[in-house]
Amino acid sequence: MDNVLEIKELSKNYGKTQALKGVSFDIPKGKIVGVLGPNGSGKTTIIKTVMGLLSDYGGDVRIMSETPGFLANRHISYLPDVSHIPTWLTVNQAIGFFSDFYQDFDTEKARGMLADMKIPTDKKLKTLSRGMQEKVQLSLVMSRKAKLYVLDEPIGAVDPASREFIIDTILRNYSEDSSILLSTHIIADIEPILDVAIFIKDGEIVLHDEVDKIREDNDNSLDQLFREVFRNVH
Amino acid sequence: MFIKQLKYDLLFGRNTFFTMAAIVIGWGIIMGNLDTLLQDDHFFMGAMFAFGMTISMTVVGVLSIMQVFQLYRKSLFGDSGYLTLTLPVTRGSLLASKIAASMIWYLFMIFAGFIMVVIMVLQIEGAFIVTDSNNFFVNLLAFLLYIVFIGLFLISVLFFATTLAHSSFSNKRVHSVVSGIIGFVYIAVFFRIYNTLNQRSWGETLVEGVSSGGDVWSFTRMGPLIGIQYGRIPVGPETDAVFIDIYAHALTLAFAAAAIIATLYLLKKRIDLR
């Protein structure tokens, strides 16, 4: 199986608003794919559909040949753009939670990452700073040996120093057999790690290609091209 | 997987439920020793204590319902829903775990209430007297069946209405107020049919169930809680037989099952986490 994720003609409405208009793309094994677009362009809607959080959609979505749901979730490690781990858990309990539910979770790796970051594991998550909570989430998500990592705006709300840390953590902890689907509207920091870029605007794909080819064809960095394409989008 | 889910569902709100149970039992101790505590100013202060206990019990009741509601809403439709709904477990298993955890806490609070009554009776009467020992265990069984089935029904409807508020039909979200009204109407319809079957009002039944039998506190007063005029099966001794109504229980379970099936359908096919 070459493709980890296959999306065909995906459409989704929120009331009268059409959030996605026939989006199609695949993610091959071992590739880091960036879904890039401004806020409200449909990035998170794509991710939520892949994760089975939106069931009322058109088109076809396959993850390792499975439709979105509990079987597909075995293969995906997901980092949403919210604090998804219950904050009443201690860090130790959160590690236990991931260990209980994900067979591919590497407890030692998670503990090692948290120790490197000097995060106390006996404290409740709600007593940690927002930045520390995000680091715990990222550590747990990247401690799985998943086929596909789905990261929704992983650097969206953090300072430049933390961005560097997050990108470094992602790169150090994903294996070459795995793929990454990453959404963001902050291109400059993420550009060096992307293999494929998908520009999405008003629920439609406006550009989809290898990052090197995009740079070559446009004689411009991905970041500059993004600014040109989305200049008038707010 | 179910046991693992149940473990984390029970962890949620554990401190709150233990605190509330301690408050309930604490009131049993206070009210049981009211004579010793008050001495002279008996009437006014006694009334104040009774008022305080009533308020406390109401708050505990409301908080218990809120806690069960939050257990479900926060873990499935709050930020934690992004974790819970993307676990490699079926939606049926998720729902079963939430129901089981809620039932455990519900029965835990009922048990705390029972302990409160026992403490009060022991301190006031000196002993817990069973006036009709022949029917005691049958009455207890009948009472427990009633409590379990009605609790399951109410929790199922609460979960159904909450899920409905987070589902989508034709890409439109169902408004939470509409969901609440649908849930309320469903409960009202159930009790209308239930009471017709029982030939008595639910409130009246409940009051009879928990009231004291004159100067002796007794479990036997709970017997009529389940016994009805029609469609009943005798389970006690022939004289003064106690009845467990299979129709009323079947009706309760049918309404609970319908709510659970509808909730499962929404979780599987109509979920819309925004």
Describe this structure in words.
With 234 residues, chain A is α/β, with parallel strands linked by helices. Chain A is 32% helix and 27% strand. Chain A has helices at 43-50, 70-73, 91-101, 107-116, 130-142, 160-173, 211-218, 222-229; strands at 3-14, 17-28, 32-36, 58-63, 76-79, 148-152, 179-184, 196-201, 204-210. Chain A has a 6-stranded mixed β-sheet with strand order 5-6-7-3-8-9, with helices on both faces. The longest helix of chain A has 14 residues, at 160-173. Chain B has 10 helices and 4 strands. Chain B has helices at residues 2-11, 14-32, 34-38, 42-77, 81-84, 91-125, 133-164, 176-198, 202-210, 246-269, and strands at 168-169, 172-173, 232-234, 243-245. Chain B is globular. Classes of the chains: A alpha/beta (234), B mainly alpha (274). Chains A and B meet through strand 1, helix 2 and helix 3 of A and helix 1, helix 5, strand 1 and strand 2 of B.
Protein traits:
heterodimer, A: 234 residues, alpha/beta, 6-stranded mixed beta sheet, 3-stranded antiparallel beta sheet, 9 strands, 32% helix, B: 274 residues, mainly alpha, two-stranded antiparallel ribbon, 10 helices, 4 strands, 72% helix, globular
